[in-house]
Amino acid sequence: MQSAKSFQLVGSCIFLLTLAASPCAAQLTIVNPRQLEVPPEKGNVVLSTACRVVAEEFRVSDPSVLRFSLVLVLGEREEHYTVDDKKLEYRLYMKEWDETKFATLAMRLCVQQLPTREQEARLLKEIMRRSDTISPVTANQLRRDAAVRLPPTTRSIGSDCMSAVRTQPCQNPNSPPP
Length: 178
Fold this sequence. Notes:
Layout: H1 2-21, E1 27-31, H2 40-57, E2 69-74, E3 80-84, E4 89-94, H3 99-112, H4 117-134, H5 139-148, H6 161-167
Parallel strand pairs: 1-2, 2-4
Antiparallel strand pairs: 3-4
Helix pairs in contact: 2-3
């Protein structure tokens, strides 16, 4: 019996060393105040595997760019995640352990790590440039222009709805005139 426990302990150490040696292993911390069932080893494996698969798919030459910290908080009413870009820390709030949801978010977080800050800034600049080319008028300009072009709010008594459409919106026919 003692050798079985020793073998299990050695196996766990080998697993943790292999995980730590992985160049794109993200760090997972599990917060589980309600003691819900969750396999922590599985969570770590899914997260590090997501990083490796994303690195392979996008041919990332330096998989260490996919390093980030993920805190899994279980027992939450509403499932969501938060991002702290400065710390490169993400928090995933789940009602209970769901391997598929966890793997999906892990994959998305790995993909989110791919562009550098410079690439993000360049992409944002290009998005704004292209959208201005397509629609060179800003939303504020549209609001100001619409306010200037509004028709007068007074309506002459006895005008029909069709003539009113040309100058201002129609009123409900069942309501008394102003």
